[in-house]
Write the structure tokens for this entry.
Amino acid sequence: MSERPIKVLIAKPGLDGHDRGAKVLARGLRDEGFEVVYTGLRQTPEMVVSAALQEDVDVVGLSILSGAHMTLLPRIVEGLRAEGLDDVLVTAGGIIPDDDIPALTDAGVSRIFGPGTTIRQVADYIRENVQPRSEG
């Protein structure tokens, strides 16, 4: 059995219509050797959870600029856990105030990446915190 690449789902929850950063991240993580699935814009928490389940991902990366992070991100984590995806690493990026980070961490978001974060920093964090699974 060989190791498969770490599989990352990039999702844009909520009504946020700006996805350039998510697309740049998706392409950059592919260039770093990850398998990446991008869900597109305006995903509900249920749609994100369903995609994570169907795609058998190791990581869910949530990009959010709309200000709805305190509502949407905990709902996504709860949905993943309810589906038994306890081992899926959940990260987020976008415009999230520092004051909100502790509550999101308590809710199960493992890391918040703010503006100016490089693709390499995200890739390194994922590699350090996810064990590739075997194929087969």
